[in-house]
Fold this protein.
Amino acid sequence: MNLKMLAFAVRFLQRRIWKNIAVFFVFWALIFLVSSAFLIAASIKKELFATLEELPQIFVQRTIAGRLVPSPASRIEKIEQIAGVEAAYGRVWGYYYFPAAGVNFSVVGLDMDMAGFTPWMDEILASDKEGMVVGEGVKRVLLNHYYKDYFNFITPSGDFLKVPLVGTFPAHTELESSDTILLPMQVARTIFGMPQDQVTDIAVRVDNPKEITTIAAKIRVLYPDSRVLTRFDIQAAYQNVFDYKSGLFLALMLGAFFAFFILVFEKMSSVGKEERREIAILKALGWRIGDVLRLKFLESFLIAIFAYGLGVVGAYFFVYYLQAPLLRNIFTGFSVLKPRFELIPVLDMGLLMSIFFATVPLYLAATIVPTWRSSVIDPEEALR
Amino acid sequence: MIELQNVSKIYNYGTPKAVVALEDVNLQIEKGELVLLMGPSGSGKSTLLSLIAALTRPTKGVVKVKNRIVSKLPDHFAALYRREWIGFIFQRFNLIEELSVLENVLLPLVPTSWSIARSEERAWEAMRRFAIEHKAHTQVSKLSGGERQRVAIARSLVLDPPILLADEPTANLDSALAEQFLQLVQKLHKQGKTILVATHDPRFESFGADRRIKVEAGHVFYA
């Protein structure tokens, strides 16, 4: 490494300081925005998929004319008899509108006597199996309306139903549990006015994860009117949503990409008269074409590598320390019950490498190609 | 030392805009000679120097330096030849305006394998030699014409090349500075350098050169 060359590259950059700062800024902004978007998506995906791992492997719903309808509770027992099924249990769930706050709560009714749903829930329910466990978002809304220890639901018949608040979901599940109220199935039926022998869907646990697809197929054969969702289907659906949102975000950033490509094109297509003269002076002083290219490469590399490095570090800081204000809403949506989850740091080297290779070499090529074109002509011609 | 054999240079060769700069020139310059190339503007003096410095190639003929053909050197070796053999003082100095005096003088040393310390030492030595060291950290754009010329000379001689080519070196200088330059050339000549000065400055009329060569309309006439 020729340190003199590096020192001169820095000096040459300093000469056109404002132009180089502008180039640096455009490059930095592009890297920052792209990295931020991908880091948010990666973080949310990681958290979401970690949470999804705790879900039952199969959900069974019933449809009539393509619409979801409650399933008879008798199906639970039949499904449990399928070989390989560890357990099946019914759930009653739906949306409860709370007009004072203008929000919908996701109400989920479970058989609270069933053990092993998740360890943390068993812990909460150990004290009181008649109350409700709520997400952080629900808790915030209830507190804003002075409901600290209980909430009064209004049933379809217009009666009040007072349900005590016995716990909240742990913070790490807030992304999916923020708007959720978990309570005994019987209470949920009362809130929704559902008949005793019906459930909204059936959750199924399987002994051997390799058999999930086979058991799902068996359930479809047993109940042809059912819609059977495996955990993989749900993961794929979430994956699609986040990929779609990442794509949407990138589309919104077309402006930044456009600015970057104009920059690249401008550099590709022209070496100014002054720059051509400089290259000729260097050659007249005994610089080889390779020396000139090395100098110009170092100049561009310094801009590109600092823009890339600071862009990625800035994005990391913005996403994981500042929690990506504004930007995260694109991924999580705008809502009163918007989860206040923490974006968990994820450093996907493959992703960072992809961003690097999609931008830095392009910019370097945009500098090297016209410099090479200028340096192969006779120095005398450029100096004349 | 320097030999031109049947050298012609035609710019834009093969196009309607073709211009003959030199035609069938034969010239021989011995080692340690101080030669003046005299002639009006556009006569081909600068082209002659550019050919010797391998800054351009002849359309016809060969240029030899120390019996090596330099006019056909590939770009890579032409650059190494210039670095090792040629110090070139351009008419408009061709300094890089935004760099300091020291940085300009350092430029020929950058692609060499010399260490930073050794390069800087050599650059300071060259600046001292041409009395410009007090302006080492001044940006070239802030220098006077005379100071610029001294920077250009220091830069051209920083690698101590055996051949010095000067193209209209006094064109932008007043009489006092021109006189200083003439003295400097004499001094370098005494040190054994082979020097070619292209000029149409009448102040060189009485200058004690070994030889004067008249260049006119692309032809060389020995005085």
Summary: Chain A has a mean pLDDT of 82.
